[in-house]
Amino acid sequence: EGMVASPRMMPHKASVGVMALAGILFFQVSGGPFGTEGLVRDGGAIYSVIGLLILPFLWSFPVGLMTAELGTAFPKDGGYVLWVEAAFGREWAFQTGIWAWTSGIFDTALYPVLFASFVQSTLWPGSVPADFSPALRGLVMLGFSALMTLVNLLGLEMVGIANQVFGACVIAPVGILVAVCLPRIKPSNWLRPSPKFNPIGWVNIAMWNLSGWDAASTIGDEVVDPSSTIPRALGWATVLVTAPYILTILAAAGVDADFGTYHNGRFNSVAEAQGGQWLGGLFALGSAASAMGMYLSDSTTTSYLISGMSEGGLLPPFLARRFPPLFDTPVIPILAVFACVTVLLHMPFTAILQCENFLYSLQLLIEIAALIKLRYSHPDLPRPFKIPLGTKPLIAVMMMPAGLCILQLVTSEHQTILL
Prior knowledge:
By secondary structure, this protein is mainly α. The protein has helices at residues 18-29, 37-43, 45-73, 80-88, 90-123, 134-153, 156-181, 199-209, 226-255, 266-275, 277-311, 331-344, 349-377, 391-411, 415-418.
């Protein structure tokens, strides 16, 4: 049996349209090329581009199609928790929700760390993390998290508007960097190997930068006409996610082949070296906007997941309470995300990333199983969007992301700590 949402204190109006949802998805999955410098460091330019062209077919597109099918069949806050409950019952739904919430916390905690790295590379170029005062770094990360939490409290309409503004700030400098670098690119640079080749590290970063499509389902109750909006938003977001990755890597690597030095913030340095301080400043602004948008999107979907579980009876009802007219949002889950992220800010970026990938892989495996199970157990379930494949071909397609999840689980260095 499925979840039965408890009535809210006040009537609720959906406010998220196609472009607002595409903006949330863009930042949930990607947020632009900032933070992908590690791909070039761990795999070189040409292998990174080839990988980013292939991986969406093995990972992103199947998950996006799954989200379109089941997100429109269960258009309520809580998203994939609803799918799992319908397929496997409340115990597995609760477990999936806990995995997803914890994964979301780790993912959200990445962005204050990224933001601090961007601030450091902009204000103290050439320095290394140890040169950045721990107290100042902590203050920057805490202030960033508090500001984004306030925006989240103001509602999804505000989050959608903010993400569209942040999106413009992200895309514009990428286009300018490509135009500035184009006449100076040396294609031979793309073929150079990286001195720090690390395929496992590359897979970790790539999967993180192409994960999160299923998050669209967690705010289904906030979406206007989900059966139409979710598939269209997924399409727009796919274009917005993949193009900036590939174009930025080709442009930057074409003029700077010192791949061993590609760390978070390196694209900012390349932009300033090629276009002067104005382009470096614009790229720094884009980096900051990217971190802001990703924090907003992750904290939003993580908070509304808990709210949806509460409305469905899997968690105490007070977690779904809203406080209109000032905060028509799930205030307690939003503040809980902020508190948990604050605790994780001391962890290194790589450790947070591996924990997030490990938990997300567990979550996605059970979602894939639910998709297949519901095809057999609920063949007549209304599906406004249905993947145009029979069940057996669908299983074959979904084995690709499932296999990558298993690879992530068996290669993670932090699974024993989490278990």
